[in-house]
What we know:
The structure holds two protein chains of two kinds. Chain A is α/β, with parallel strands linked by helices. Helix content of chain A is 47%, strand content 14%.
Amino acid sequence: MTASLIHTLTSMDQPIIPAAGDGQTMTLLSQSSFPAIFLDGTLTTQTLLAENNQGLLTLSEYAKFCRDMQLKKTSPLIYDLQSGFGSPLNTYYAAQELERSGADTIILNDQTYPSHSLNRPTTTTPADLLGKAKAAQDGLENDATELWIKLEGIWDYGTKGILQRIHYLANIGANAIIIDHYTDDQLNTIIAATPELPIIATWTPNTPHNSGITAWLDTGCLARQAQQARQQALTELKKGSIAYAEK
Amino acid sequence: MLKNDRMRHQFKTDVMSGHIVRMMVAPDALAAKIAQSCGAKAVFSAGYATSASALAMPDRGISDFGFALERCREIINAVDIPVFADADTGYGDLDNVKRTVECYEAIGAAGIFIEDQVWPKRCGHMDGKKVEPTEVLEAKIKAAKAARKHDDFLIMSRTDARAVYGLDDAIERSRRYKAAGADLIFIEAPQSSEELEKIHEAFPDTPMMANMIEDGKTPLTKTEDLERLGFNIVVHPNAMTYTQTYAEEQLVKTLQRDGTTKAYKDHMITFPKFNEFVGLDKVNARDAMYAPEKMAQFMTD
């Protein structure tokens, strides 16, 4: 089903890959014909642990959730390997576990372990990232399972550092790059340099169009909308209007 | 071919080969790895051993689907031989059976059995069992067959009716379970070699399983003899659990008595041998493969 997810995305008109972190959203999305669904680590942490820090979510907790969700799969599933849940050795076994749990594509980020859900996370060295990327590849049994790398340190190593890492990751055989925490100018600079791998950028509803992007990776649009709706309902609940309406 | 597909295919081929497949029930991943290292062609993940290992509780329906599935998954991931699974009653109604089949298939089990006991069930060799009307497991077998994605994920029916209504009823139920779609038949706790023979005569063309439990209702019978009787699978459900329990009890008694484990050391595997068995060298070698200096080859302009 996912032998060529990145090629499928390339042939489309910059599709958005929606993010889910709970069963209801997963069900909704699986009925909505998206090219793939991303089970985001931060959103899953919010669901399972009532916390916002993805680094609190362990591999076994996340993989269990993924296995339950894969039973509802109608399109390729993209799993969040975070920063490998430890060293490259941990990354090897973590990638294996996520593939066994139904992953069609795995996203490895370049943060130090444990990952954090921050705008300016601390990132690791290129050599450590490459070790983890190679380990993740080696841990995968199915040749069709793709490895995408999310680069989160543009605020630190700049577009030059991004392009250098993309080149290294192309050497190692990664399938795509995701750029996070970027400005529009930075994204334009990266695209203008014609990078060696397909570029996906993180997306929120106000993200401006960029013609060089292969696809957009949602960061939790539905979850934020749902939370706003819950807050609105909570306000009504406090006023007692729901109870009154039910009477 | 991916591992899950390979294991399912291999198990089906072995079961249908006309030769008997002998399986130990592995209480955990380590036990399964031991069985594999000693030449086992397949292992079983079953309720009695999982209840004991996970909860230190008897097989009385306290250990649930979550425990059973996770333990089976751990075992599958630890070995490269097929793993067959005990799915008890399917853990509820037909919706539960569907989920049970989907989950066991997804983790790579070679197949499952589903039984006709009333939940909470008990070990098939315990007294006081109750069975559902035949229609209940008939419907579950049909639901299981409809839910499976691969034809070589085998569905076995198990009846516990021998203890409740006698062998003839157990055979008649199994005929109906087979007609409902069961690939394999298991009549639990026959009480003599003659009964084992009668079971085979009732199903000459259907793969059958025999359960060899120490101190159970069925006479302990050699694998070769069961093969001659026409059985295709024999399972030893409790032997590893009992051996583990006995050995650990002796060890703790020794420590309590002597203040050291020295007198028991001859009954243990050594530190280096155990590390070798669980693959420490391989893990260390893999760790070294991804060291920063090894990545320099990819960091070229």
